[in-house]
Amino acid sequence: MAATIVERKADDYKSEVKVTWCPGCGDFGVLNATYKALAEQGYDTKDVVVVSGIGCSSRFPFFLSTYGFHGVHGRAMPIATGIKLARPELEVIVFGGDGDAFAIGAGHFVHACRRNVDMCYVIMDNAVYGLTKGQYSPTAHAGYVSKTTPQGSSEEGVNPLMLAIASGATYVARGFSSKPKELTKLIVDGINHKGFAVIDVYSPCPTFNKVNTFNFWKEECEPLPEGHDPHDLHAAINLALTTDPLYLGVFYRKEGDSFEDRIAARSTGDPRETQHLVEKLIARYS
Question: Would you call 248 helix, strand, or coil by DSSP?
Answer without folding.
Answer: strand
